[in-house]
Amino acid sequence: MKIHPKHILAKSLILSFCYLAFNCTQKSGNESDDNSEATDDKSAYYTDEDFGKISKINTHVHFKVYDTTFIAQAKRDHFKLITVNVNSGYSPPIGEQQGLAVKLLKAYPNDLAYATTISVKDFNEPGWAQKTISYLDDSFEKGAIAVKIWKNVGMELKDAKGKFVMIDDPKFDPVLDFIEKSNATFIGHIGEPKNAWLPVDKMTVAGDKNYFSEHPEYHMYLHPEYPTHEYIMAARDHMLEKHPKLKFVGAHLGSLEWDTDTLAKRLDLYPNMAVDMAERITHFEFQAVTNPKKVRDFFVKYQDRLVYATDETVNEKTPIDVYSKQAHENWLEHWKFFTSSEKMKVADVEKEFNGLRLPKTVVDKIYRTNAENWFSLEKFK
C-alpha cells in the first residue's frame, strides 16, 4: 500500500512533538543537575535573614575587662557565650580572670558560662597536682564548666632537667582524672597551626602571617630546637589514649586545621574528642577555594564533633563598641559561609571560594546542640 506524503509529514510532526514533550519533562525532572538550588527543599536551609533569629552559642571568647557592650551585641545576635580563662603571658593572673568571670556570670546567668584554667608556674614543685586540683574544685564550685590548658604546655614549660613538658606527662594525670570525675570538659590549646613551622611567605592564610610576624617567639620555623608539630600532636594523642572518657575539645581545630582528612583521622580514633573553630574558620575557607565539596562532606560527616567558636578578646585595646561591631560582622561572615552557596571573598584568604550551604540540621549542631552536649550546658537548653 502506498502511503501519501501528507501522512508521512503528519506522522513526523507528531513524533517530533512527542520527542520535544518528553525531553521537556525530563529536563524539568532533572533540573537539579544543572541548578540544585532551583529544586531542592529550601525549607531545609537557613538564609541570611535567619542569622538574628536562631539561638547560637559561641564557645570561645575572652573577657579581660568587665563590660556589657559585647554581651549586649551577642544577645542581639542571639548568641550565648563561654568566656575562657587562659594561663598566658598576655592575660591577667588567673585568679583575677576567675573573679571577673564569676562577676559576669552573676550578672548574666542565662547568657554566659565560663571555663577556668590552671597555672603551670610551680609545675616542678612538690604538691603541684594537689594544689591545682584544689583550685579547680573551687572553680567548679563557682560555676566553671570546663578547664582550659594553653600552648605553653608543649612549647614553653620545661621540667627540672630542662626538657619540654608535654600534655601526656604523668603529672597531669591526676588533674585530668579530677576534671573527668567532675563532669567538666577539658579544652586543649595544644600546639599551634602547622603554618607556625613554615616561613611566613609559605603560610596559607593572612591571619597566621600577621600573628607569627608579630610573635616570633611562637614562630617555630625560627626555633628548630623546639618540639616539632608532629611530636606535640603525638603527645596530645597519647593523652587522649590514657583518658578515653575525658570530654576533650581541641581548641583551634585541635591544631589540625590545615587538612580535613588529617583532622578526620583523629576524630575517628578518639570518640571523646571534638574541636572548636576558634580563629580557624579561615582554614576551612582556604581549603574550600580548591575543594568545597570535600570541606562540605567533612562537615556533614563530623557534624556532631564541630563546635562554633571565634576567640574574640574583650580588653582595653579597642573601644568595645567598635570591637562589638567588628565581631558582629565576623559572625555574619561565618554564617554566610556555613549557610549559603554564594561566592565569597574574605581578607584572610587570597582567592574566592563558595559557601558550604549546610542543612539546618548540621548548622544547628555546629552553633548550638554540640556545645550543649560537649560542655554539659543544661542551663542553655
Automatic annotation (TrEMBL):
Organism annotation: Dyadobacter arcticus
Q: Which UniProt keywords apply?
A: Hydrolase, Lyase, Signal
Query: Residue span of the signal peptide, if any?
Result: 1-21
Phylogenetic lineage: Bacteria, Pseudomonadati, Bacteroidota, Cytophagia, Cytophagales
Pfam families for this protein: Amidohydro_2 (PF04909)
InterPro entries documented for this protein: ACMSD, Amidohydro-rel, Metal_Hydrolase
Q: What is this protein called?
A: TIM-barrel fold metal-dependent hydrolase
The residue ranges of the Amidohydrolase-related domain are 153-376
Note the PANTHER family from the entry.
2-AMINO-3-CARBOXYLMUCONATE-6-SEMIALDEHYDE DECARBOXYLASE (PTHR21240), ISO-OROTATE DECARBOXYLASE (EUROFUNG) (PTHR21240:SF28)
Any one GO molecular function term = hydrolase activity
